[in-house]
Amino acid sequence: MNQKLVIYNSLSRKKEEFKSIHPEHVGMYVCGPTVYSDVHLGNVRTFLTFDIVYRYLQFIGYKVRYVRNITDVGHLVGDGDEGEDKIAKKARLDNLEPMEVVQKYTNGFHDVMRIFNILNPSIEPTATGHIVEQIEMIQDIIQNGFAYEKNGSVYFNVRKYNESNNYGKLSGRVIDELMNNTRDLDGQDEKNDPLDFAIWKKAEPQHLMQWNSPWGKGFPGWHLECSVMSTKYLGKTFDIHGGGMDLKFPHHECEIAQNIGATGCEPVNYWMHGNMLTVNGRKMAKSEGNGFTPEELITGNHKLLDKGYSPMTVRFFMLQGHYASTLDFSNEALQAAEKGYKRMTAAIKAISHLKPSDKSDEDIHALQKLCYEAMNDDFNTPILISHLFEAVRIVNSAKDQTIQLKAEDIQLLKILFEDFFEKVLGLQVEDEKSNDALTSQLMQFILEMRSKAKANKDFATSDLIRDELQKMNIQIKDTKEGATWSINE
Ligand code: AMP
Ligand code: ZN
């Protein structure tokens, strides 16, 4: 561990040198997905951000206990204290048992993580697996005077907490301003104060997911699970807590309040927030209808996509932005990333064919130092990638014999890519075009031929194409934006 790593801490709002609580062991918690729908590419960006943190900490010698939860209860439609549970709603709509919904989307989430080469966490706990611990934490919070029971629900008393603590210190919200924003909406509410939030909710008899508790049948509030599972597996105070920027308030603000309310300890030393993936400047979100699934991205089968892209191209594209900045999705940006990524992988393949000389025109050690410096400065992957492109230039010049390199420098270039391209950035050299990408391009071509036939009033050909594809179980659908295709299950 001879690297001096600096992290931007969302809590102090400044860059701080990273020092772990245990000298050789880092505790890291990242809020996982709510498993009621397919993950979209925006979600992937956040999990990729923390994959890089996990990889780099390990690369510079730390042992990391990485906990990433699965939210399978308590996250209500609307993200507040009212409305149906997102998973229960999906179960009702699809006529499934809630745990079938949970399993289906957890499996899907794991598939996506694997496709993008995002490493598994050390522990992946679920909210429903920790109901007992959640009830215990609520009891501690009540005992410490920071929560009260009302008609079978338990609410966190924000004003009481704020007397001795600072509710809003992470998100920068001011309690009186929050008051003005909530008054009208929550006027009818049973809470003592509209600022209070539920840590346990009474369940109506028809509610699909409910458990016995000292306050009657109910279910835990969404924010509570992360306080409980992080404390259980990482301790009352741990090193790093991550999630997307949109979780800062209320989710993480409430987490801090719950932890301090229960244990009296500040829970997290470094809060890290990944910024959003946007489409035309708007956050990618399921509710916006601008989110595509990784499968659609790979096949290109979505109206926002000109063609399909390989998972490694997408990973490379995302890492060319710093995690703290927004990243706007566009076909142009992805095409540029695809070109850059191919150039880099071609250079990596060329290294083993370079002919050594007895002198070197380049200082590879200096370049290696710059790569560490980029990552040590708050995981600056775009700067790291620019240094790797400098290495690409050196490889290509050596290949063209416009410069010379000693054998040990050729070896060092090889190590540089093994370390930073593969281990730190988690990129892989994709051999040839993946079958999915190829299928997508072929389908795009076939659909173009069909629309040309139609335009020429050659309906015999356009119908033949449709029928032949149907025989292969490929369904064509004509929409206002053009034809789309799907494979019948
Ligand atoms: P959810 O399942 O909605 O709780 O989201 C899982 C993770 O994805 C959270 O950390 C969110 O902050 C993150 N997330 C959601 N939308 C985006 C987006 N457009 N860009 C980046 N991260 C996102
Ligand atoms: Zn969380």
Give a concise summary.
The chain has 489 residues and is of the alpha/beta class.
Helix and strand topology:
Elements: E1 6-9, E2 14-17, E3 25-30, H1 41-59, E4 63-68, H2 86-94, H3 98-115, H4 131-143, E5 147-150, E6 153-156, H5 158-164, H6 175-182, E7 197-202, E8 218-220, H7 222-234, E9 238-244, H8 248-263, E10 268-274, E11 277-279, E12 282-283, H9 294-299, H10 311-319, E13 327-329, H11 331-351, H12 364-376, H13 381-399, H14 407-424, H15 435-455, H16 459-471, E14 474-479, E15 482-487
Parallel strand pairs: 3-4, 3-9, 9-10, 11-13
Antiparallel strand pairs: 1-2, 5-6, 6-7, 7-8, 11-12, 14-15
The structure holds adenosine monophosphate and zinc ion (ZN).
Residues 31, 33-34, 42-43, 45-46, 243-244, 246-247, 276-277, 283-285 line the site of adenosine monophosphate.
Q: What can you tell me about this protein's structure?
A:
Helix content is 46%, strand content 15%. It has 489 residues and is α/β, with parallel strands linked by helices. It has three domains: 6-274, Rossmann fold; 293-424, no CATH class; 435-487. A four-stranded parallel beta sheet has the order 4-3-9-10, sandwiched between helices.
